[in-house]
């Protein structure tokens, strides 16, 4: 949870930025033109969700019309029941059928910069239709059919978008694993999903080095025997071992297949994908998203939140990786349904120099830019001379996602990147929500640095206490969603009870997001942070227990407690407190070893920023680790609050004196 200082600083935030007067004119129009229009539409959408969402769904292509817009029996939602639809058709074929086959769908830029600049590939909707169909046929030839989960562990190359859409085309749910995760993470996910096919790349470019994706898959497959087929995209030309009968090159399996493949007619409630995310307990959970509702929600939020408009020379760029929900919804599904060119960049923001992003914005005339607060803080640190060197005048809307944005970073983004003329849309949502839930409308909503402002149309968010009672203004409470929404998760793969316990048990009949929040007197939402043992590191979710399990899996560590700590760039960093087994020396070498061990177990994003060794961890009389105290110690604050349940005061004294 956020500390008191955060609450103080947001409470005193009184800067309000009205949408720029010339925004609609610069953008070729606005979908939602004023705050009055937003309020009216929001009220209507909440009063009659069936009429509201039904009208949106009419804009998509359905093989068969739905019978009922929504059926809701908490915690189970069913949207557009009886409808038949295909996600790939709506992202690709629909635009070709409408005569836009020659328009750019994906604009891709590779990381390495040669003498002639970086490699750029533009795929039109017609190209996508051909390539996706070809790969869909290749998957079918490997025996993949409706309902078979296909795992994707790839770099940010066009083949990743092609593979995602090929799975959707043939009704095979995809499970994308972020390329920064470890071999063990692949094992956990393919086993949980019983996924027999993995698509990967030889390697991925990252800051001038090759991430050995195929080697990681090979290592994973020495631990699990679930996977039968591996398809490998050649990207970095690094050495890889290909196992006869199991491993196939992408270019081989796509060489001899037809480039036409019909779209499967999927039930609206058929699973579209699984995406694993961290929770407060156990291994990451597979969040289940289905087809019709997810498409409708990501289509509308992309259109309204970014004010995307056909034929206005928009070039939209979301800097996330497709391995996260942001990439699923707002690089691929939502954006492509709107027929807007989606830019995909392969590599790091500071390669070969700290101005790479701004160079990309200039060269590709980016109009819509969506990134995370952690990236903005890094840009601030690198200095404003880098963006200043580039022409950013085409930018219209700036977005942020993943964690609370501190007002300083918001102001920098507004001033240095947006030149004070681009609205900032601070979008609050989650892997589980599938799409935006609370966000400004760029031409309508007055924005306040640090607040994600108001709920999206059709979304009924509230800040409540345990009884479900709404909290008064400026009072913290639990952030809930009181009504179902189309792209809500339909479950946790294989764990019904965990689904109910995690999301629908805190407050009767409502979805509990796991975040605390407050609303100010104007009704704006302010996200205060997670209420569970999940920490948000650089906008990525990690369960403290996952990191603890990784630490204790090393021989040296007997017990570990992990908490979040303030971090200048990451927002939240990881602090680990460990007790050691007898013969291990608590020295710097062991800290390095343990950091490397966690990276090997989970991935580099989980490496603790600080590791402290201690004789014992502070615990309550019932044996629970007192995380609040550890958070204070990690933040260098005086331990505050009630300590009467602390078993061994000397432990705390020892931790604190170690700091001196
Ligand atoms: O704590 C909230 C934070 O990120 C969590 C969701 O993480 P994840 O499922 O990985 O999805 C991230 C991308 C959608 C939330 O519970 N979060 C996300 N967006 C914001 C945010 N916190 C504050 N402001 C945001 N705009």
Question: Could you give a quick summary of the protein structure above?
Answer:
The chain is α/β, with parallel strands linked by helices.
Feature tags:
alpha/beta; 660 residues; single chain; 21 helices; binds adenosine-5'-monophosphate-propyl ester; eight-stranded mixed β-sheet
Care to describe what's here?
This protein has an eight-stranded mixed β-sheet, sandwiched between helices. Strands 5-4-17-16-18-19-20 form a seven-stranded mixed β-sheet, sandwiched between helices. Helix 19 links the parallel strand 29 and strand 30 (610-613). By secondary structure, the protein is α/β, with parallel strands linked by helices. The protein is built from 21 helices and 30 strands. Bound molecules: adenosine-5'-monophosphate-propyl ester. Residues 277, 325-326, 401-404, 426-431, 452, 513-515, 527, 530, 536, 541 line the site of adenosine-5'-monophosphate-propyl ester.
């Amino acid at each position: 949870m956020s500390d008191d200082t955060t609450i103080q600083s947001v409470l005193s935030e009184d800067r309000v930025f009205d949408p720029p007067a010339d925004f609609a004119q610069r953008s070729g129009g606005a979908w939602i033109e004023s705050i009055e229009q937003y309020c009216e539409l929001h009220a209507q959408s909440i009063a009659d969700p069936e009429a509201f969402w039904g009208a949106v769904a009419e804009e998509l292509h359905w093989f068969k019309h739905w019978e009922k817009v929504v059926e809701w029996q908490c915690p189970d939602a069913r949207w557009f029941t009886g409808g038949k639809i295909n996600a790939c058709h709506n992202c690709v074929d629909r635009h070709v059928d409408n005569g836009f086959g020659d328009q750019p769908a994906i604009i891709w830029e590779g990381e390495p910069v040669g003498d002639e600049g970086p490699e750029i590939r533009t795929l039109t909707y017609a190209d996508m239709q051909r390539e996706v169909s070809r790969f869909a046929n290749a998957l079918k030839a490997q025996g993949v059919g409706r309902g078979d989960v296909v795992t994707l562990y790839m770099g940010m190359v066009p083949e990743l978008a092609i593979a995602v859409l090929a799975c959707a085309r043939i009704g095979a749910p995809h499970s994308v694993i972020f390329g920064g995760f470890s071999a063990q993470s692949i094992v956990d996910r393919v086993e949980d999903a019983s996924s027999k096919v993995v698509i990967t790349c030889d390697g991925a470019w990252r800051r001038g080095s090759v991430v050995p994706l195929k080697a990681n898959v090979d290592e994973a497959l020495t631990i699990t025997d679930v996977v039968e087929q591996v398809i490998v995209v050649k990207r970095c030309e690094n050495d890889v071992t290909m196992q006869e009968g199991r491993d196939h090159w992408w270019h081989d399996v796509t060489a001899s297949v037809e480039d036409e493949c019909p779209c499967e007619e999927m039930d609206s409630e058929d699973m579209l994908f699984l995406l694993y995310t961290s929770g407060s307990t156990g291994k990451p959970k597979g969040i289940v998203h289905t087809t019709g509702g997810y498409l409708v929600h990501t289509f509308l939020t992309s259109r309204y939140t970014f004010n995307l408009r056909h034929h206005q020379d928009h070039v939209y760029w979301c800097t996330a990786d497709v391995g996260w929900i942001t990439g699923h919804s707002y690089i691929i599904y939502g954006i492509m349904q709107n027929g807007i060119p989606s830019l995909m960049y392969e590599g790091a923001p500071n390669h070969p120099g700290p101005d790479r992003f701004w160079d990309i914005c200039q060269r590709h005339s980016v109009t819509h830019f969506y990134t995370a607060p952690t990236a903005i803080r890094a840009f601030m640190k690198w200095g404003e001379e880098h963006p200043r060197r580039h022409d950013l005048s085409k930018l219209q809307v700036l977005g942020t996602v993943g964690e609370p944005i501190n007002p300083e970073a918001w102001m920098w983004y507004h001033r240095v990147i947006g030149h004070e003329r681009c609205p900032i849309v601070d979008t609050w949502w989650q892997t589980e929500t599938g799409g935006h839930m609370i966000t400004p409308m760029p031409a309508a909503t007055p924005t306040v640095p640090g607040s994600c402002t108001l709920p999206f149309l059709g979304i009924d968010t509230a800040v409540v206490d345990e009884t479900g009672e709404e909290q008064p203004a400026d009072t913290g409470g639990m952030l809930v969603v009181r009504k179902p929404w189309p792209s809500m998760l339909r479950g946790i793969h294989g764990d019904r009870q965990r689904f109910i316990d995690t999301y629908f048990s805190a407050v009767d009949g409502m979805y509990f997001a796991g975040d605390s929040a407050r609303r100010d007197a104007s009704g704006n939402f302010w996200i205060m942070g997670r209420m569970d043992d999940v920490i948000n590191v650089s906008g990525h979710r990690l369960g403290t227990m996952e990191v603890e399990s990784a630490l204790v899996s090393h021989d040296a560590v007997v017990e570990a407690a992990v908490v979040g700590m303030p971090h200048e760039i990451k927002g939240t960093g990881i602090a680990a407190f460990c007790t050691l087994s007898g013969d291990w020396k608590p020295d710097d070498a062991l800290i390095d070893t343990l950091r490397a061990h966690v990276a090997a177990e989970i991935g580099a994003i989980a490496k603790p920023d600080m590791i402290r060794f201690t004789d014992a961890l502070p615990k309550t009389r019932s044996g629970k680790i007192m995380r609040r105290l550890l958070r204070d110690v990690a933040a260098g604050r005086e331990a505050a609050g009630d300590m009467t349940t602390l078993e061994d005061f000397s432990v705390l004294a020892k931790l604190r004196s170690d700091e001196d």
